[in-house]
Design brief:
The protein is an alpha+beta fold. 36% of the residues lie in helices and 18% in strands.
Length: 188
């Protein structure tokens, strides 16, 4: 005689039908949050690397006298900004190409009291050039907290270099765009 066996394979399949859907519904929000975090942080770090590289590349071109005459001064630059500084500001923006934020640029020539001929800053060989950029980041998804500076989500990049070649030496106070979140105090 054969032992009595219960047929459970049909009943078991029907009991497990909804388990996968419930598990997926529990895990999906976590997976979506992780995906949004990867996207937001990836774009944030891309902007950060682009800001460093863009400021450095544009400043390097400026100190060797290789400004882009086809690059116009940004519309929100202050009215005292010279053509050369406007070209440099435009080059920084073009080199950076901010993806998820608004970028602001400041160019400064600090005065050199040790230079008796040209004590005010400007386009003179061996004078300092300071280029700063801020990218005010608005996260793409808004679900992930991004790094903050003084309460603002911003990427800051600054380079200080010396002018090597100048086609037309002249005094220049520099220039800046509208004040970014957090101001320009860190740039000096």
């Amino acid at each position: 005689m054969r032992p009595f066996r219960r047929r459970t394979h049909g009943l078991r399949g029907r009991l497990d039908d909804g388990a996968a859907a419930v598990e997926f519904a529990l895990v999906l929000p976590i997976l979506v949050l992780i995906l949004f975090g990867i996207i937001d942080y990836g774009l944030f770090f891309s902007n950060s690397i682009s800001a460093q590289s863009g400021v450095q590349t544009a400043a390097r071109q400026a100190v060797v006298g290789n400004l882009d005459a086809t690059c116009p001064k940004p519309g929100d630059a202050d009215s005292s900004t010279t053509t050369e500084v406007g070209e440099l500001m435009c080059m920084v923006k073009k080199q950076t190409g901010a993806i998820t934020g608004t970028d602001y640029v400041k160019v400064d020539f600090p005065p050199d009291p040790g230079d008796l001929v040209h004590p005010n800053g400007g386009w003179y060989v061996d004078h300092q050039l300071i280029v700063c950029e801020v990218i005010a980041v608005q996260g793409l998804t808004g679900y992930v907290p991004l790094p903050r500076h003084n309460g603002e989500v911003a990427i800051r990049s600054r380079i200080v270099t010396q002018i090597e070649t100048v086609t037309t030496p002249k005094d220049d106070p520099g220039g800046e765009e509208d004040t970014p979140p957090g101001g320009w105090g860190w740039c000096a």
